[in-house]
Amino acid sequence: MPKLKLKVTHTHAGVAYPAGHVIDVDDHIARWLTDHSIAEPATNRPEPAPDAADASVKTAKTPKE
Question: Which residues pair with 23 in a beta bridge?
């Protein structure tokens, strides 16, 4: 069964799922959802972290006296 990641909130089998949720569907439903831009194939790649402060910036430490 294909795994799809929803692009928008969608009700499937009587349950409302938020955008970003991954669902398992049969080939026919997967094709319909992708053709209507409701979902896209899910990948196993991790999602990028939301915009956060840049952790690569280092601050200089002053030596303790």
Answer: 4
Question: Where are the strands (E) in the chain, listed by range?
Answer: 3-6, 10-12, 15-17, 22-24, 39-41
Prediction pTM value: 0.62
Distances (CA, A) of 45 to 16, 17, 41, 42, 61: 24, 21, 12, 9, 36
Q: Which two tokens stand for residue 14?
A: 């009587």
> Can you tell me the distance from the alpha carbon of 52 to that of 32, in angstroms, rounded to the nearest whole number?
36
pLDDT at 46: 57
Tens digits of residue pLDDT in 5-48: 999 999 978 899 999 999 999 999 999 999 999 999 998 665 56
Question: Which residues does residue 10 pair with via DSSP β-bridges, in sequence order?
Answer: 17
Number of helices (H) and strands (E) in the chain: give both, helices first.
1, 5
